[in-house]
Write a structure and sequence with these properties.
Maf protein, seven-stranded mixed β-sheet, 6 helices, globular, binds inosinic acid
Length: about 200
């Protein structure tokens, strides 16, 4: 089976490679392998809208294989669930991960805030080769740290402490995310459904 991942995010892609690495009969590809591929703007109002935009855009040029598109982000309770769908561009259209993290920490100091509860959420859409749409979700709850720590992962990993842990995701490393992340949960749900169709 060929699974094409609709992402240009290197951090996500390396997580997918790790997660899918043990499945022998599955070959992972990504949109960057198609020289002429142009992503569409993610202008949806929900994670589901944006996941669908990504998956559909790739499916338009790869319509006889499995295609996976995913939209994920960080929801912070004390910021009315922002940055949410704006997570990748929170500090501006071309913001780097460290600029987004800096803006998040700044926003949290603007008003004295006791509530640092947050969650990562992920909505994953898979198109089967025959064009059926499957939807999966995952979430991981935790807290926002007062300062960044750790070198692993990407995005907001240096400031996210999962529930039950004392270190950030960027300190805990790939093994933890492979087991517990929002992305891993949604992907595991997909793999379960996929396996049930192969039986
Ligand atoms: P997307 O590529 O539009 O889904 O953007 C997702 C953005 O949310 C990323 O650029 C990160 O800023 C953030 N994000 C999503 N998942 C994660 C994660 O697993 N760790 C850290 N940040 C994440």
């Amino acid at each position: 089976m060929e699974l094409w991942i609709a992402t240009g995010n290197k951090g996500k892609l390396s997580e997918y490679r790790l997660l899918l690495n043990e499945i022998v009969d599955l070959k992972v590809h990504h949109q960057g392998e198609i020289a002429s591929f142009t992503p569409r703007p993610e202008d949806g109002k929900t994670f589901l809208d944006n996941a669908r935009i990504k998956a559909k855009t790739l499916r338009a040029v790869k319509n006889d294989v499995w295609v996976l598109g995913e939209d994920a982000g960080l929801e912070v309770e004390g910021l009315n669930n922002l940055p949410g769908i704006h997570s990748a561009r929170y500090a501006g259209p071309k913001a780097s991960d460290s600029e987004n993290v800096a803006k998040l920490l700044k926003m949290m100091t603007l008003k004295p805030m006791q509530n640092r509860n947050a969650q990562f959420v992920c909505t994953t859409i898979v198109y089967t080769p025959s064009g059926e749409e499957w939807v999966f979700t995952g979430q991981m709850k935790g807290k926002i740290a007062s300062k960044p720590a750790g070198l692993h992962g990407f995005g907001y990993d240096p400031v996210f402490i999962p529930d039950g842990q004392t270190q950030t995701l960027a300190e805990l490393g790939d093994g933890f995310k492979t087991q517990h992340s929002h992305r891993a949960q949604a992907l595991k749900a997909f793999l379960e459904k996929w396996r049930s169709t192969q039986a």
